[in-house]
């Protein structure tokens, strides 16, 4: 008989054990080993049975055991010490507070961080893959550093999905119902005790309402909006049913709730708790892009700004991070669907629907005028944007260059901050203990938190024997975990216990172990290793240098192509001849990953270059002394040094994007698979099994030590968050303050001697008016003549040219523009690379034809083919980039790329 209503009955803890609730409801336990050890000691069997979830543990531990613990003085001392440690962690100054004391200008009072998913802990399954794990690591690192971030997301009642296999190896999905009362979340309530409610107007007079759950991630509050409440109709209740589910309108409503509702949730949280209001808003991918539209509405309503001035203020304080390297990874909606939700009775006051549609319009060549592009809106609403690795920054500048027509790809204003991973979450405690034994516990903790390279000094002294014994221990742990999971998977597939005796001999703790685990879109090439099955079998079954492989991954429920790849992998791994050497483990999640990364000797990554934006799984493996074997993509492209792993050669045609059914794609995969086999056999396995007289692989261990010392500080989320603070958050806060400041200004018609009036957001008003004036006048801006004192013969290095340029500015003033000379080495097509910029100076006023002369001395700083051109750009002290307006004027002959060329 099915219950008509479900709810949770909480355990009443004895008074002496009340701090357990405090520890359980702060997700710091997920990366604090001492707290996890305490919960494990409450009841080891229940701890394991509940998936190492403190909230569920406290709900299921027998009352008699709780009574015994309440009388256990040793346990109570540990409990008291850990509760005190948590309070000190939450209240004490950390890196951000120290950095703020020495800063020339105040750091942001708070930052709001929006993401559609968060991977904080396996016990809070609100993630699908790398984007969510990255967001979770961002919050954890911000907490450790003391950065005042407020996280914002959605609460999915069914999370993503749990994966299993049928007898034929086909992926099966199930969506367990998540009860927030059984999770480490609390309901945000008004002062009268009623749940805080966020409302969005929908077409047809409907309302989408949501409650707000708060997960406490160390020092960072994470606000999760939940539409499954009684105030909603059944359709609206399902808006937050599952992550990345439903059709186009369902996704649009999710993204409206995340962006618009998320801003309103942040405002409610600040009002109810006294938390400082955010000065900077960071949107992690385009899903939350509507947050900018809501903030424009706020400013129009609260300050009387018009749309243009409000837009400038919002842009100044917004950062957009893109994670996708392909246009297909961007959410796009039918314009009519968006218009229906932002026009008519549902229009946001002060935000005309045509302005909203313009933000997401695909105005570039090849764009679809019928679609609304979330990434385009995100970039138009953010004055600062970044990719997530150096290579991904380059890819992003190329992919989004259509938003800045007339500019070279290198000038597109998208920078990069390479992702990092949260060390305390992903490093096995045994690795931490080994490092702490050499450099001290306090220094080891600081090294994992801040990414300070100097704090990692000393790890190079760890002995070979200690490293090798640790690696063997971690490998053995993975073997045990893999056997347990494999047995459970086969039972789910219908096998009887009598059929599974072979599982006890699967994998070997002394055999070279390669790991491959990630989502399963086609570009990550799960089955590249199967390209030549006989070659792979030979590697797995080599008589003296065998290899074993642990594989895991989920395909999107709607991706039958990905499911077929998994089925192919499972079919190979099911073969009795090799199943002791290769396993596929279903239901890849954080809990599995925390065993997998430390236990592997090599982490394999073979995407199509350059389609891996970053690829942080290899970072997590490296932190545990695992060597990477990867295509030079994402983070590996910038940090591979020849001693921390191996680079798989690529055979792509330049951009890595080929029709998977094409002959070129087949040939590329054949070449790269062959290179992979050769590397494993001739270099990876050869080095692993190359033992000295003491039985140790000294050269392998040297690579492990080098990886820990050199990659350790680079791959940390602490390093990443510090970069965000220093390079992006702090400048964004300054820009936002400048535009929001009330500056004294006179107004037309004010009598002489009258006091100047302080006008709120004067900077935003002035910047918006200036941009409007420049855009209107720009068609009249022309480079009309360029000349230089340049003889025909070759020039000597270090000499200079006197440049004179005549520029027509139309209605604009010289102060509205900057005239630049761009010079550097040129290629065969006369394109300038690594250009140097020289600002030319105006000389005198406009001539009789309205032209202004600019002059400068151009130094010939490079040998070989050399060229120059000139350009005119808008110039204003409050622009974050000269390309911000997307306006540039070039000499007419520049279209032919031969102007001013010197040889």
Could you describe the 3D structure shown?
Strands 1, 4, 7, 8, 9, 10, 11, 12, 15 and 16 form a 10-stranded mixed sheet that branches. The chain contains 29 helices and 31 strands. It starts with 18 loop residues before the first helix and ends with a strand. 46% of the residues are buried. With 903 residues, it is α/β, with parallel strands linked by helices.
Mean pLDDT comes to: 91
Q: What spatial form do the alpha-carbon principal axes imply? A: globular
Major sheet characteristics: 10 strands, mixed
What percent of residues are in strands?
15-25%
Question: What structural class do helix, strand and pairing data support?
Answer: alpha/beta
Compute the CA-based radius of gyration: 30 Å
Summarize the entry for a quick read.
The chain is α/β, with parallel strands linked by helices.
Task: Please specify the SSE layout and strand pairing.
Layout lengths: L18 H6 L8 H10 L1 H6 L4 H7 L2 H8 L2 H19 L3 H7 L9 E4 L3 E2 L5 E2 L3 H16 L3 E6 L7 E4 L5 E4 L11 E2 L9 E5 L5 E11 L2 E7 L7 H4 L10 H26 L6 E5 L6 H13 L3 H10 L1 E4 L10 E3 H8 L10 H7 L11 E3 H7 L3 E4 L2 H10 L15 E2 L6 H4 L2 H11 L1 H10 L13 H29 L19 E6 L15 H8 L6 E6 L7 H14 L8 E4 L4 H10 L2 E4 L11 H7 L3 E5 L2 H6 L5 E4 L14 H26 L9 H14 L5 H24 L2 E3 L11 E3 L2 H16 L4 E7 L11 E9 L8 E10 L5 E12 L7 E9 L6 E9 L26 E2 L1
Parallel strand pairs: 1-4, 1-11, 4-10, 11-12, 12-15, 15-16, 17-18, 17-20, 18-19, 20-21, 21-22
Antiparallel strand pairs: 2-3, 5-6, 7-9, 8-9, 9-10, 13-14, 23-24, 25-26, 26-29, 27-28, 27-30, 28-29, 30-31
